[in-house]
Structure formats: C-alpha cells, structure tokens
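How a chain folds remains the central question behind the approach discussed here. The record that follows shows the chain in one-letter code together with its fold in token form:
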Amino acid sequence: MPFFDDLIIEQFDSAIYRTGVDLICRKLSEHGIPVSSRLRKKLESALRSGQIGRFRVGSFQWWKARQITIRINEEDLAKLDEELAGLFERVPSAIQGLLDEVPPDLMRQIKLSYKKDIKADEKDLKKLRSQLYRRWAPAFNSLSLMIELSTRVGTEGWPAVMRDGTAGSALSDVLFRLHGQGIRIGKEVLTLLRAGYADAAIARWRTLHETAVVGAFIVEFGEECANQFLAHQVVGEYKAAVRYQGAAPSLGFAPIPESELEILKKARKAVLDEYGKEFKGDYGWASTFLKKPPYNFAALEQVVEMDHLRPFYGLASERVHTTSQSLLYQLASPDGMLLIGPSNYGLADPGQLTGFTITLLTALLTGIAANLDVLIGARMLQLLAEDTADLFVRIQSDLDAEESEFQNRENNEKSST
C-alpha cells in the first residue's frame, strides 16, 4: 500500500507521460490517424517501457495499411519543455487538489489490504507474546495468584463486617471500594505486562499507588476522615460541571441547565461552610488532618510513610505526562530506541510494585474485618509479594545478562574485523 508521497509521485509521473503522449497524438493526427483512448493507453505503455521506436496501430481497414514516420523536431521539443515547465509550476496548487482526492484512494486501498496487513501484524504479535510469556510466565502467574488471593480476602472480609455491624460505616464503605478498585487496577497492570507494555503498566500502577496511599491515610484518621472523603465528592462534581459548561459551546454539546448547576453550587457551599475554605482543593478532604499546607498527595505519602516510593511514582508520572524525559527514556527501551509496540524488557518494576501495593491495600482491610480468613490471607500475600518480586527481578537480571553478553560479542566481532 503506497503512502501519500508515493501516490503524489505516481500522479505527476503519469502527467509527465501524458504530456509526451499528447505530442505523439498530435503528430498522428497530422497524418490523418484517429486517436482513441485505447490508443493513448498503448502509447503511454510503450513510452514507459522505452519501446516507442517502432509502433503498430491496428485498424479494421487492413487494405489501407501504411508505414509512417514521426519526427520530433526542435520546435516540438521546445513546446514539450514549455508544457512540462507549466506542469511543474502548477505543482503546489495541484498537490492541494490531489490531497482532496488521496483519502478516498487511500481508503479503498486500505479496505482491500487491511485484512492481510492485520493478519501479518497479529502473527508477529502472537509470536512475540508467546516468547514473552515463556520467559516471564513464573512471575506473571505469581502476580496473578496474588490478585486472586486478595480478591478472596475481600470476599471473606465483607461478611465479617456485616456480622460486626459496621457495614454501614463510611470507613468500611470507602476501604472496600478502594480495595475493589485496587483489584481491578491490578488486573489491568497484569494484562499490560502480559502484552509487553511495561511503561503503560507502571502508569497504571501509579493509580494503584494513589489508591493505597489514600486508603492508608483514611485508616490512619478513621471514620471522620472517611466521611470527609465522601463529602468531597460534590466539590469534584461542581468543578467538573463548571469545566464542562465552559467547553460545551466549542464542543457543540448541550449545556447543563442552570438549575442543576445551582444545586451543585449550593451543595459545594454547604460542605465548604462545614469544613472550611481549604476543602475546595483537590485534597481538601485531608486538610483537617494535615493541619497545615501543602494539601497535596505528597503530604499524604509522608503521613503514611510511603514517600520512599516517590522515585517510582515520579517515574510512573513520566509515563502519564509527555515530557522530554518520557520521550527519550522508556522502561521497555532504556537505550533510547523509539518503541511503537510491545517489548519483553522492563517488566520487573511495574510487576513487583503492583504485588507490594496489592498486599498493602489488602492489609488495610484487617483493621475492620479481622476474621481468621482475612488475617491468614493478608499474611500469605506478604510472603507471596516477596516471592513475586524475586521472580520479576531474577528474570529481568537474566535479560540484562543476555543483552550484555550479546553486546560484548558484537564488540569483539567488530574489533576482530
């Protein structure tokens, strides 16, 4: 399937040959030979093949067969040069017109060839993922077991909360929701790891880390903190509504009715009146417990002593935001090579980080659902987290050793030559 530049070259290449054909057709007409569209195609084909020296023009009036000679003189060549010069002068405006015609042509070619192209791509991806899975399977399976065990801890923990009569509390509601969200994100990370997308995996771990930090902070300060966390929803809703309202005209969307905006505005004012002006910030729900600014995520990390993971959080943030660092460095390609697809490299960090964070998030449930199943499950997760991390690190180390050996072998071969 040609790209745009190939299509443009093809179009102008045809125009150049048509100019030559026009000249020959004029000469034929001078000899009384009628020129049909079929003859023009034959002439262009002969020009392209370079076999225009002798050319046979068929006619049903065979009894009038004759041989003629066409001579191209200086005047003809000068006219041809003039026509070609005019053609090239029209290139800029012609390209714009051509671009209007290219998309339909391109779409037709895509529709004809996409099945073949996709099938070839899928075959390559299947081969790569098969190789990737054979190498990383022990680590993937261990992380998958952790996620499944954490899911069962949550499933066993909820009946314990129901028996204790704390199922309706804000704290239990928030923690089980955060745990459920963590399980889902863990599965997303595992899916990305199995597909060979290390950078996307650590970007999703970033959200998992935020989930665990928020959960640990709320556990630290208890029921009232959970209440304020839930009450903060209206602040986010009003902020989103105002943002939508401002963009709706440009997007061509229907605006939010003013009556609905007013309801949100009053609800926001009510929580600000109750909890103070600092409550309007993104982490305003934590302001009462942080005591002093800044009221941000980094402050939450410090309180729950998870700020030692900030370097990894920063690395993950680079995968979310577009910066020169994120453009020039990728987990899956530390040598700076631009990747546009999956890789079997760099999966260790997001893998082991996800295991540890799932373990922490699950451990938070033990404070509100401390039955035997939950306690045993949480302890098993701690042991599994260490095993899982060891597997991810060992496999990555093997890859690094193989790469180093390959580079040394290449360097030695270059030196010997």
In short: DSSP finds 14 helices and no strands in the chain. The chain has two domains: 4-60+67-107, 125-412. The radius of gyration is 35 Å.
